[in-house]
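User: Structure tokens for this complex, please. No commentary.
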Amino acid sequence: MIEQLHLLILAIILFGVGLYATLGKRNVIKILMGIEIMTISINVAFIALGTDIANGTFKEFTQIFPLISLAVGAAVIAVGLAIVINNYRHTKGVDSDEMSTLKR
Amino acid sequence: MSLVAIYILMILAIVAAIFALESKNLMVSVISLIVMNFFVWGVLLTYGALIIAWIQLIVYGGGFTALFIVVVALTEKQRDETFELWKTILAVVAVVVIVGLLIFAVTQSGITNIVGDVSDPSEIFTILWRDRTTDVILQGVLFFVASVAIGTLFLQHNRKKTKEEIKA
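Assistant:
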């Protein structure tokens, strides 16, 4: 017996872990990892909410939304990592407090 | 039995995610992220979401891992020594409050829908062979090996460089 609730709780906890990284970490690579974990948790939530309530089956169509989310998340993290490398060339560090020097 | 296996997969995914964020060594963090992706892949497979499970494993577990490893190797800061006690405590408190509220809301909503077409985790392997996903497995393994190889090459190159600089 696999319930929708278990998957939703997993998604919420993973989202919390990712949120902790974005709030409490200063290393930009860790923050990007947190954003990736949050994206994964949103995909899991999409899958959990895609159940057909009437007959309890899984809808194949619901996997389209996580696919879009995955593509957008891919672009976000690729750009983020590019910014990290660019910032490292200027400041020789990966601290989020030093990101203000990007405008120079 | 199957429910216990799924609980174990979920708990391991959460533990791997926390370990990825808390590890001081950034390479270990990236490897923990791969492990977390594998556990989430297992959970999604047991729920019957085959397409998204595989695509997530390939894109996040494979492609992004390679990107992360390259960035960690290029930035030459393989250790994360930054730690602020008050910031961490505030973040943990905020996250605990938000997650607690969300879990309370979800559990009180009365959701009891049963999902997934796999009742026994051992059926996963049957499904993998039946749906001809072995080539996708090979792609995932190839991505994983390639990412680890690229990371190792970068690390070795940097170590050689620093040793030569020290000698000079």
